[in-house]
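On clarity, I found the account of how folds are encoded harder to follow than it need be. What matters is that the chain and its backbone geometry are given together, residue for residue. The format is easy to grasp once an entry is in front of the reader. For illustration, here is how one protein appears when written out as sequence plus structure tokens.
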Amino acid sequence: MKRRKIALHWQILGGLALGIAYGFLASAAGWKGFTLDWIKPWGTIFIRMLKLIAVPLIFFSLVQGIGSLQNISKLSRMGLKTLMLYVASTVIAITVGLGLVNLIKPGSDFPEDKKAEFQEIYGGDAASKINLAHGNEDGPLKFIVDIVPDNIIGAASSNVNMLQVIFFAILFGIALVLLERHKVETVHKFVSGVNEVIIAMVRLIMKFAPYGVFALMGSLMVELAGDDPVSSIGLLQSLGMYALVVIAGLLFLVVFIYPSLLAMFTKLKYAQFLKGVLPAQLLAFSTSSSAATLPVTMRQCENELGVSREVSSFVLPVGATINMDGTSLYQAVAAVFIAIVFGYDLTLGQQLTIILTATLASIGSAAVPSAGIVMLVIVLESIGIPSAGIALIFAVDRPLDMFRTVVNVTGDSTIASIVAASEKKLHPEDLELKKE
């Protein structure tokens, strides 16, 4: 009798659950040193393997996707749709966050002694993030300048410079489209071949996913709890309402906004959509990195949702870099929360400034863990709130980063499905026939 293979999302979910259970056990038993020395490195290796292929995957996928188009007008049409949908979903996410935080007003009863305590504990971390954000402030057009690399090899050496890699890949792909096919046939075959090799690498790396997720979650729980889980829980309770508002906003996007968008623009059933993107969501939760999750997001959208590779190879790499719905919502909630704690009464104009600044900041935010908190400094200073206030939210930033990355990935997959449907490149029914 043939042994039935366990689906990838169940394997990852199992690793996630076992990692959390192990983390609590290790904290209670005092195994922090052992966990950080012998368990955590395997999670780090897993993330590194995913990041290892992120840049080549984005480059060759984009080049193949653009190069396969027959004319520039088709590229410009798809690109305009993608950009408009990403900006619209970001603005919706920020508006949802502002609506909830103004309604619930977390932080209005934040105790003064806790404020001073958090400033003392996390002041050093806050200062480093502020310096990092200020280091990027060289004028209003600095963001546009940073998109254009002066050295593509240098840009490709860091996942933080993903926008520069995308710029070069789009330029390369456009050049392929403009040239006569017979002159660049060899280049097309080379790009297609390398892309297939990278996809095979993704399959190999994903065999390690359950173990990597276990190591990541186990070590994270130990680091959060230390040797005293009870004291950690007590510390997190003081920021519980703020965290709940962020999570409620993220859930609102996943439960109401994305299903509505899919129902309006596609024939894809939301249950089928969620089942298809679940492995990518679980990986996003454990890695807190849209870039590291990108290979799996692309694979799931193509193999489980029926999005054509032509669309996924263009829309998803761009989305992993510029579309951060979860991060944008979090920035809006965090900015108002910090303002309330410090006793600031934000005007309508200041809240509109949050929408504009958070939208632009999400576009410039790197698809790596905790990048959103660096961008939050810019959002806070745009409305005149002391940026040192980010020290108040550091204690819960890591777990919230995990949740918002899940929403980032879900938003990217939603937009990819909508763009594919508009281009008549979404065919989930073909997948059902293949399975039969």
